[in-house]
Amino acid sequence: MARLLITGGTGYLGQVLLRQARANGHTLAATCFSQEPPSGDGVVWVPLDVRDSRAVAETLDRLRPEIVIHTAFRQTGPDVLAITGEGAGHVAQAARAVGARLIHMSSDVIFDGERDAPYTEDDPPAPVSPYGEAKALAERLVAAAHPEAAIVRTSLIYGFDAVDRQTQFALDVASGRRAERLFVDELRCPVYVEDLAAALLELAALPYAGVLNLAGAERVSRHEIGTLMARAYGLDPAAIPAARSAESPVRRPRNCALDSSRARSLLRTRLRGLREVLRDLGRITE
Fold first, then answer.
1. If you classify domain 161-188+220-256+275-280 with CATH, what class do you get?
2. Which of 134, 177, 184, 203 might form a disulfide with 85, Cβ 3.0–4.6 angstroms?
3. pLDDT in tens, 192-212
4. pTM given for the model
């Protein structure tokens, strides 16, 4: 099987990718930055700051991966543009230099959310947040440095082993540990981390180049996500207050739903909707 490098291997998606890729027989390497990697897992771990273009180039030249899946990012803070945006360009340049297949992870928040229909691969980015701007920059840099790369736009990633950050937030609200409200008019297509990882590994073996949406099949609001997750964990969904994004002092994209029909026609892996996943796992019955 292929020599596979996962950047951000200690992250939520990176850990699942490594587990699935190990089961598929890949030879694995992964980078880490702010988190200590596990030991004895059969992965070659390499500390790497993607802001350092020389270090990125030297690392990939030494490892010689056949496939690179770039999941490393920073969502907030003063380094978000340098790590999430410029760092992606460094990885793309290095991957191209060693002839590696590149899968770059982008996001639905590259859009302003001011439309009703789901976004397709042909829709141009129009970010309204620093993170969205960094992801949009990353897309431009990756496309310029590595034209054969697949640029994957995805949505909120959730899972249950361990619980993801967004789900934990909703559970904290439902249990009264946090006094927050969830928006009824902020729409996403959340994707189960196991489905996403499997789709990425399948995509890595295909020659697809350019943007591809990989998101869940169901469009749901932030409030719906929260109430469904509360039910899945035996909490009262009515305990989660509702609000509208217009009430937020910070501008937020309203509708970031992604049209993943192209991926459904390309891949065998099913990108299930949130309710379907919860039913399949026996967490809800409707």
1. alpha beta
2. 134
3. 999 999 999 999 999 999 999
4. 0.96
